[in-house]
Amino acid sequence: MEQQQRKENDEGIMGRYGLIVAILLLFAGLIVFSAGKIIFSSEGKKWREVGEKEAVIKDRVILPNRGNIYTYDGKLLAAGEPLYGVYMDFWADGMKKDTLYKYVEDLSKALAKKFPGRSANQYRNVILNGWKLRETEERRMKDYQARGIKKKVPLRSRYVRIIKEDISYVDLKEIQTFPFFNQRSNKSGLVVEEKNARKKPFGNLATRTIGSVYKDLEKGGASGLELKYDSLLRGVPGVKNRQKIQGKWMDVVEIPAQDGYDLVTTLDADIQEITERALREKLIETEAESGTAIVMEVKTGEIKAISNLDRTSRGSYFEGNPNAFSYMNEPGSTFKTVTVMAALDDGVVTPTDSFYVGNGLFQYKGKWVRDHYWRQGRDRGYLTVAEGLQISSNVVISKIALKGYENNPKKYVDAIDRIGLRKPLTWDVPLNGIEGTSVIRYPDDKSNYWSKTTLPWMSFGYEAQIPPIYMLMFYNGIANGGKMIKPFIAKSVVKNGKIIKKFEAEVVNPKMCKDTTLVQIREMLRGVIENGTAKVVRSNYLSMAGKTGTAQIASGGTYSGYYVSFCGYFPADDPQYTCFVGIRRPKGAPSGGGQAGMVFKNIAEQIYTRNARLFPENCKVDSTVSKLPSIKNGNRSKSETVMTAIGLKIADNSKVSSNWVQIDSDSSVYQMRELAVSEKIVPNVWGMGARDAVYLLEKAGMRVNLTGEGKVVSQSLRPGSKVIKGTTIRIVLK
Asked: pLDDT tier at 50 (50, 70, 90 boundaries)?
């Protein structure tokens, strides 16, 4: 009986279970049927569109990382830097009005303190107006729904900009700790849009040559190398959708961006700094309108430094126009070397042939040719070709040209063609019109009238327009054994550390002149510095050769002001570098040697001493000196190596464990003391050289602003204080 009852109970339970299962299966079937109906019907299409509009923002552009620009040895000249736009989505799922109003005051004050572009009250208004806009949109949506209007309400409160400027990653991390923003993004509505910006670690160094990019990076390069090589640097944009997943907006990449190629230049940061500083100092001294200086490696054609400085209305100088290429000016006396080379090569003269100059005045076809000394009234009698070039005599050079080419001026211009100075060339920076080309007249050219006096005046640097880059190329050819090569700046294109394309100098003319002519010209150019107009340029450290230039500047049918220049190479016996210096409208008596030539000398001596190599035996310390020389603080092992090599005594430092030390001395021995170095605290770089100081500060995550040379005498952040990654520290060296 009991067994039967149990059996009936079991059957009842199973029956009820079966009924429940059947009902659940029926509901599941209905759900599947309804889902299928929605998916495959027009209604499904409608809801998918609604869902996508509400939860997906399609086809947003992913900007690729723009390629970096480097010096020849890998120092960054221009690099991409991520910046962030800060917005708020007032439709964020978890955002609550009472919470927002609770924190808005504290948030606004924190934002105003960090980003003072707006006051705390202005930030408060921006945020609260964003919420009020959301409420207005919400009311409008309900109104449309009640009236059966299917029109979509634009949600402008979904993307409200809070901070005017784009901010750095360090600043972003800081604002994420602010009241309200320290909550999850679906509650705070904080939306961050990453952007790419351009940073130049060396500041304004060679900035005109490097160029710039548009503020809207999608437009790419705006000038200089950035524009010339924009197609390589910019990369290929990608596509992403911004999608709401679990109440949080996330980026879903559809097509990844392809980053741009890196560009390695020929520039040397050290030589660039030497060149720019030397030019700037002379421009300030002479209150000149503008200037340019270029340093080129003789054998390779690589431009190691290029500085283009223009004077502002406030009297300071900055990188403005590409003067090295765009100075379309009459070159003046630096062109005399071209005339002498042509005449020597054509057998018109020899270096010892002489011409009567008298008191420096010579009349031809009713026009006077004057030498710079003509007002002195001194009769110099006869000057040889070599002497005429050395003292820069217009009379001698014009008489050379007339002797050889008066009856056939085409032969003169053909000789200039033979040298290579009329060859059209393209350069590594974008230019307009005739900029960057030599404009030298030809007798049969009807568009550029050849007058009866063109030949003698062209012979000493007038009636032609030749930019500095061409004069640099010509003098470099003299230094390079007669082989003229085109100066260039872009060295290679690199992707992920691998060279994709390599640039080399273009040979403009493999042989500018006869070997005998070249020997004679080089001897004359040495004479310009030893005995001529550039005696002030003569150096006690190295031999140099070159030519001065002083030309009046044509302006409005007359002449106004002077353009002084110097072009040469060094060392004269074994040329390594060629350098051109040009200064436009300096105040005071114009002097190619005393003004432009002194910049050349300054650059040459600094480069020469920078590259000099001394052996330890040449650096032994005199044991009779009463006070030991001071040693910079810094890397212990490197300091020990040098000090031991030159015979400096070091006290027992076996207890010193740190590799960063402070070095003190008494009358006979040096003592090393440990420096506390940690990536979490600001290191003490007092007394260090630039290399060690910058290394330690950057390793700690700081950006370094450096001025001066020598060793560190001050630092803007207190040693031992806590490091905030990305902050800028200023150090001064003397």
From this structure: very low
| Domain total of the chain | 5
Same-domain status, 278 and 259: no
Does residue 147 sit in the same domain as residue 18?
A: no
- Using the structure block, give the residue that is written with the tokens 């060793």: 711
Q: What is the pLDDT of residue 47?
A: 47
Alpha-carbon span 368 to 391, nearest angstrom = 19
What tokens does 207 get? 């900035």
Domain span at residue 34 reads: 2-40
Same domain, 445 and 580: yes
**Together in a domain, 277 and 257:** no
Q: Which pLDDT band holds residue 377 (cuts at 50, 70, 90)?
A: confident
Distance CA 533, CA 565 (A): 12
| Range from 395-399, 622-626, 654-658, 680-684 that averages highest in pLDDT | 395-399
3-state helix, strand, coil in the chain (%, to 5): 40, 25, 35
- Residue 455 scores a pLDDT above 90: yes
Domain assignment present for 48: no
Are 278 and 327 in the same domain? yes
- Residues 403, 407, 411, CA angle at the centre, nearest 5°? 85
Spatial CA neighbour of 272 closest among 610, 539, 728: 610
Cα 389-394-397 angle, rounded to 5 deg: 60
Straight-line distance from the first to the last Cα atom of the chain, in angstroms, rounded to the nearest whole number: 112
- Does residue 342 register a pLDDT over 60? yes
